[in-house]
Design goal:
Layout: E1 18-19, E2 32-38, E3 42-43, E4 48-56, E5 62-71, E6 77-87, E7 96-104, E8 112-123, E9 128-132, E10 141-143, E11 149-152, E12 160-167, E13 170-171, E14 176-184, E15 189-198, E16 204-210, H1 211-214, E17 215-217, E18 220-226, E19 234-245, E20 250-254, E21 261-263, E22 269-272, E23 283-289, E24 293-295, E25 298-308, E26 314-323, E27 326-333, E28 339-348, E29 355-366, E30 371-375, E31 384-386, E32 392-395, E33 407-413, E34 417-419, E35 424-431, E36 437-445, E37 451-458, E38 464-468, E39 477-488, E40 493-497, E41 505-506, E42 512-516
Parallel strand pairs: 3-11, 9-10, 13-22, 20-21, 30-31, 34-42, 40-41
Antiparallel strand pairs: 1-2, 2-4, 4-7, 5-6, 5-8, 6-7, 8-9, 8-11, 12-14, 14-18, 15-16, 15-19, 17-18, 19-20, 19-22, 23-25, 24-25, 25-28, 26-27, 26-29, 29-30, 29-32, 33-35, 35-38, 36-37, 36-39, 37-38, 39-40, 39-42
Length: 517
């Protein structure tokens, strides 16, 4: 059976990962490090640095990982602690676990470069690993022969707004709108406060986003804005945006002039349509399922929905099927039609469990946001109407029997020589006798040990693509591919490494790129 070594790297995370060429676990059952990374290179006093890592458990459950950094001229030591977030192995120890944590830089921390000089981790069976730049004479200490560092500087370039998006941009009172804020600058985004004001009116909407609400990547936050039931219709424009960056610094951008205010460089408008005159929700008449087919290990059903709307016309129809805690859904688009039959497909992937999936809800929305809900008659909520038909999907063995890991055949880099701060599109070609590849994770490293992590996922055409992002190419050098991992929809995984360990394979080819000043 394939062992799944899944490493979650948030898209956009500034990876300074330094992978260790260590065996998957020590022969004596002690824990071992697999990787460590810092979320940023520079920080101001009072700021924070995010930490991530992976470690192999020994014969017992893992405890925290402690990292010690020292500034040479002052001797000041700062410590960060990583705690286990998820066990990515299968079966008994030894298994690979993900770790994350934060290093808080005190307000009185001396300026300068802080270098990693000691690492300590222990499991509950008494096994431990201690690494130090200059090992003491005490038994059990080993040499720490790799570098990881950050620099405390007086100030870091503040975050500035890059984009504000609203989904949907048209809504009704009582609806919930997803607000996403993206920033640019050296410092990650920790918080955002937004104010929308009614055009030609006196009403306003306020929204606050924090890291704990909807973290997307170090420079993007997302959260929900609930519209009051009594909110008047009209256009609500973004008039003020306050960003809080990783150092705790705050800056307000406004459409108004004022002391300490900067001009608002982005625009966003929310249209509230409560008084449009169209208050009639769409009507669902019938649903039909066609015969299923098997595609790349998944089951696919054609679905037809007959519906009508006497006002603005149908916008979209959402169908959700459930089996216990598992669910699958599909969206059919009406494109403003007043009535008709709308076709689409519902897919149960190879990674989904077998069984019977029952239609739990159909949601119909028109062009101005009116919605109607349909649910099974024996489990109908107050806001819903009974479904005209009860549909089920019978799934037998979507992923059963697929234990073949996918293979990486080739990588194509759109550019192989770029300037600092430029991006590169990467495309992968894979092969799998069962379910198709779901993602490809790549790691490139330069001569100085700096790493860049890239995740490729299927685009609309089905190709596996991803980007070496602009902020990842701030440091010049030649970056070579040192690791690649391919995962299919059934969870099978194949790992390639420049220096393969247990259960890994050598890289099938050499590739990389140059970053020039």
């Amino acid at each position: 059976m394939n062992r799944s070594f899944v490493r979650r790297i948030a898209a956009g995370f500034l990876s300074l990962s330094l992978l260790l060429s260590l065996p998957a676990w020590a022969d004596d059952g002690r824990p071992q490090l697999e990787s460590l990374s810092l979320g940023r290179e520079t920080v101001s006093p009072g700021g924070r640095i995010s930490l991530e890592g992976q470690a192999w458990a020994g014969e017992g459950e893992m405890g925290p990982i402690q990292l010690y950094f020292q500034e040479e001229s002052s001797g000041r030591v700062l410590m960060g602690v990583l705690r286990e977030t998820r066990d990515t192995g299968e079966g008994p120890p030894p298994s690979l676990a993900d770790y994350s944590g934060t290093l808080a830089v005190p307000a009185d921390a001396p300026l300068g470069e802080y270098r990693l000089f000691r690492v300590s981790l222990r499991d509950n069976s008494g096994g431990f690993l201690r690494l130090e730049k200059a090992p003491s004479s005490r038994e059990g200490w080993e040499v720490l022969d790799w570098d990881l560092s950050f620099t405390v500087v007086e100030s870091v370039a503040p975050s500035s707004p890059a984009a504000v998006t609203l989904s949907p941009a048209r809504a009704q009172p009582g609806d919930t709108v997803t607000v996403t804020v993206s920033s640019q600058g050296e410092s990650p985004l920790r918080g955002a406060s937004l104010l929308f004001r009614e055009e030609g009116g006196s009403h306003s909407l306020a929204c606050s986003l924090q890291e704990t609400d909807g973290w997307v990547d170090p420079y993007t936050l997302s959260g929900e804005l609930a519209l009051p039931e009594e909110l008047p219709s009209g256009n609500y424009s973004l008039c003020s945006l306050t960003l809080t960056d990783g150092s705790g610094a705050r800056q307000t951008y406004s459409s108004q002039e004022g002391e300490d205010l900067l001009p608002l460089p982005v625009a966003a408008v929310l249209t509230v349509t409560g008084d449009s005159g169209d208050t009639t929700a769409p009507v669902l008449d019938a649903l039909f399922l066609g015969e299923p087919s098997r595609e790349d290990g998944s089951w696919v059903w054609p679905v037809t929905v007959t519906a009508r709307d006497t006002g603005s016309g149908l916008d979209h129809i959402t169908l959700r099927f459930e089996q216990g805690e598992e669910s699958v859904s599909t969206v059919l688009y009406g494109n403003g039609a007043e009535s008709g039959s709308f076709q689409g497909e519902i897919t149960v992937t190879a990674a989904s469990p077998a069984g019977t999936y029952t239609l739990a809800q159909a949601t119909l929305a028109d062009q101005v946001g009116n919605r109607s809900y349909y649910q099974p008659a024996d489990d109908c909520s107050k806001r819903a109407q009974p479904l005209p038909q009860l549909l089920t999907l019978s799934v037998q063995g979507t992923g059963a029997g697929d234990e073949e890991a996918p293979a990486l055949l080739s990588l194509t880099l759109e550019e192989q020589r770029i300037q600092t701060g430029e991006a590169i599109l990467v495309t992968a070609r894979t092969e799998d006798g069962g379910s198709p590849a779901q993602k490809v994770e790549l790691q490139f490293r330069n001569e100085g040990g700096r790493s860049i992590a890239v995740t490729l996922e299927p685009d609309r055409s089905g190709q596996l693509t991803g980007w070496v992002k602009k902020y990842q190419t701030e440091t010049a050098g030649r970056y070579r591919l040192v690791k690649a991992a391919v995962t299919d929809q059934a969870g099978n995984r194949r790992v390639y490494r420049q220096e393969p360990g247990r259960g890994e394979e050598p890289l099938p080819f050499s590739t990389g790129f140059w970053v020039e000043e």
